[in-house]
Write a structure and sequence with these properties.
204 residues, single chain, six-stranded antiparallel beta sheet, alpha+beta, 50% helix
């Protein structure tokens, strides 16, 4: 009897923990509990990191596929070149994988560090100069639009994505955005640090 009770409790916990999954058109995987489907909109519940449950709505145009508990993946996306959906379903899977891997694995901290050191040094040398404090971080951020994003194997969730152009097309935009944000953060933090260092210790 006790064994049956334990098995029942384990199955109950697994059922509670199991969730539906929405794969969004930006590559994000969204674990949730789908409450209703109006035909055009999903209403679902999400558990936030703090444990609170939030109800949200999402139009189906923003969803690539839905996987409900105990059911196979159901793909909503359809190729329609007139509407701008030029990729096939298989190609979209590569594109979304690229977007997802970029968001999850591309950190761009070296860009932050270089910006911090370079802009901090310029701000310090320029003393309390307005131009040497503000212009370098902005210029450094803009420069990040130029270099090609290098997709290293450590970023890939599957080594088969290597040399896949469609995967690279998905990876590049979110990686580029993160690289620019890191450049801006490193640049302005460095400038502020360099300026404060000069003001506090060398301004006589």
């Amino acid at each position: 009897m006790r064994s049956l009770l334990i098995v029942f409790l384990i199955l109950l916990c697994e059922t509670i923990a199991a969730q539906d999954t929405l794969l969004l058109m930006n590559g994000q995987l969204l674990p949730c509990r789908i409450m209703s489907d109006s035909g055009t909109v999903f209403v679902f519940e999400m558990t936030k990191k703090n444990g609170k449950i939030k109800t949200r709505e999402l139009h189906k145009n923003d969803v690539f596929s839905v996987t409900k508990i105990g059911q196979p993946e159901f793909i909503l996306y359809e190729q329609n070149e007139i509407m701008g959906d030029i990729y096939t379903i298989d190609e979209m899977n590569y594109l979304l994988a690229g977007q997802r891997d970029a968001r999850n694995n591309f950190k761009a901290w070296p860009t932050f560090i270089v910006g911090f050191v370079m802009c901090g040094t310029i701000a310090f040398i320029g003393q309390d100069g307005f131009i040497t404090t503000l212009v370098p971080p902005m210029a450094y951020m803009v420069v990040q639009l130029v270099p090609k994003i290098k997709i290293r194997e450590k970023y890939m969730s599957n080594p088969e994505y290597k040399y896949n152009d469609i995967y690279a097309d998905g990876f590049e935009p979110p990686a580029r955005s993160r690289k620019m944000l890191r450049a801006m953060g490193g640049g302005f933090t460095g400038s502020a640090t360099g300026l404060l260092t000069w003001l506090l210790f060398f301004n006589k």
